[in-house]
Amino acid sequence: MNKFYRKTANRTFEGINYIFSFILIAFMFLIIGSLFFTTTPSAFFQQMSSRVVLVSIAVTFGSSFIASLLVFIFSVPTAYVLSRKTFWGKRALETVVVDLPLSFPPGVDGLILLLLLSRTGILGKLLEHFHIYIPYTFAAVVLAKLFVSIPFMISFVREAFDRVDKNIENVAYTLGASPFQVFYKLIFPLSIWGVLKGLVMALSKSLGEIGATLILAGGLTSATGTMSVLIYFATQKGEMDKAIALAIILEFLTFILLTVIKLFFKESTHRIHA
């Protein structure tokens, strides 16, 4: 079992390293690019400290953390069902919740959500009875990030569950363990590295998501203006100072976040090898 832990921990740590390296390279390119596109250092730092940028940071990271939490809550039981249960329509369910969403570009995801949740949509009409309207709100930002990230998380977690030997489960059942005990005390702990890897991927995707968010949430108000969306609008208007300031902040904060996660994985891996 320790060998299994070490193997999955090493795979997860390698995946984090790839993401970490990509973010670092992108950050360096942005720093170099800022020297060519910004007018003066004062103008650059003025953009970085503006209220619009500060609000976009809160919207981006707040919505991403909420979306990642919801992704975790929905993905783990779904992945478990797809990994361990056999039932009629299982393949159809996998196609609907994993295969099709993975094949859709984010912009298509956003359009599907908008058609469903608009005042003329099926879900929109239902929610209207409860005086709930989601498009162009903060909830729309969270939902867009959730919809785009969840198939990746389910795929990663299911793969982690599939790697757990079913014979171990059978032994636990013969010893009188309940299904919940088998999952909580056996399957999930043995799959934790794959689950965390999927969660990191989902969080990274949420932080940079733009296509679905732009269509469903708009990004025209302080409640829905994520950093990626504002970068898009700034480049369209030729406001390169603002676009680069937002991009550098986004990359820097993502870099810090992934550094913390990387150190956590590194320390945990060392403990496993010890």
What would your notes on this structure say?
Helix content is 82%, strand content 0%. With 274 residues, the protein is mainly alpha-helical. It has a single domain, classed as MetI-like (MetI-like fold, Orthogonal Bundle), CATH 1.10.3720.10. The model has no long low-confidence stretch (mean pLDDT 80).
Give the tags.
82% helix, 274 residues, 12 helices, mainly alpha, MetI-like fold
Element-level helix/strand string: HHHHHHHHHHHH
The multimeric state of the shown protein is single chain
Helical fraction equals over 70%
Q: How many β strands by DSSP?
A: 0
Beta-strand portion reads: under 5%
Looking at this structure, what is the CATH superfamily?
Answer: MetI-like
CATH topology: MetI-like fold
Q: Flag low-confidence runs.
A: none
- Average of the residue pLDDT scores: 80
Number of DSSP helical runs: 12
Largest sheet: none
Task: Set down the secondary structure blueprint.
Layout: H1 2-37, H2 41-48, H3 51-84, H4 90-103, H5 106-117, H6 122-128, H7 138-162, H8 166-174, H9 179-208, H10 211-216, H11 227-236, H12 240-273
Helix pairs in contact: 1-9, 1-12, 2-12, 3-7, 3-9, 4-7, 7-9, 8-9, 9-12, 11-12
Task: Write a compact overview of the structure shown.
The protein has helices at about 1-35, 40-50, 50-85, 90-105, 105-115, 120-130, 140-160, 165-175, 180-210, 210-215, 225-235, 240-274.
